[in-house]
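Recall that a protein's primary structure is simply its ordered list of amino acids. Everything else, from secondary elements to tertiary packing, is in principle encoded there. The following example makes that idea concrete.
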Amino acid sequence: MQHIAWLLFTITAAIIGSWIGLRIGIPAGALIGAICSVGLLQILTGSAWFPPEIKPFATSMTGAYLGMRITRADIQSLKKIPAAAAIMVAGMLGYNIICGIVLQHLGGLDIMTGILASAPGGMTEMSLVALDLDANSAIVSSIQIIRFAVIAPIVPILHRFTLAHWQHDSNQSDETADLGVPLRAAGLKDTAFSLAISLTAGMIGKATGLPAGTLCFSLAACASYNLYFEVGTLPTGIRYAAQCSNGALIGIKLLMSELLLLGSILPAVIIITLGWIVVNLLLGCALYRYGELSPETALFAAAPGGMSDMALISAELGGNAAQVTVLQLCRVVCVIILCPSIALIVS
């Protein structure tokens, strides 16, 4: 009964936070509002609860919404991915090494823990790698949580202002101009069928154990379905529901005990986390100029945040969801593969 009560409290907090976020008009308001409200509830009480089993459903919903927005032009634009991925991965791994050194000198951590803790990869994956390499997995997971919890709310708001002052190249703008302007909205039956396809594909992707398999499989399945049958885009309520659920899942990870565990190195953690935002802006500029991506796509493709969240927000602001998803996947895969080797070499 206690679990059920806290689940209801958490859902209520997430819905209220999402409503406020949408009401005041911030980018990805449903996501950011839910993170802030549920995170506050968790910090104050330590009892907020949202079943982790919901995550595959929320991710599948995100995949369905993104997949049903992808056009043939988006698929053709994926030819630009290799060059952009090389620029992004090189820049992120370079800053990752700097972060590890900073945490070693300012925070007193060993270099292995510092590099893994600041790596722009999945929290679960980096924590498991830390266990394998005898690094401090508790510190790694705590810093990873703080990194994502800081970046997820700040990046969409910051990039909205950045895009407002960014000179758009006419050719690049044309490529994404049709994204988010579908020919028609999907009907109720098509929506239900699309969600069923997405969930089935997402479960298959999750079973493969591949990084971001749930999102990638559901997105690919729905994109293929829509490209063949021209069903149309899903209702925006799907997007809001996915954002609200993902926000709740992020928010419940914000524990006061995690903050206390870091103690004296928290200032250094905040500094390098804010540094990731600067790196995001620099890499976004590089992807825009040399990777031939639109500004909306470049900024969110280079964001070291959740792949599904960044793709969803990018699509909301007129970016290319297909390119963002593929580049984010490249980031996660390359970091998981290369980061442990880099940490061993540097240490």
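The two ends are 49 Å apart (CA to CA). Residues 169-183 have pLDDT under 50 and may be disordered.
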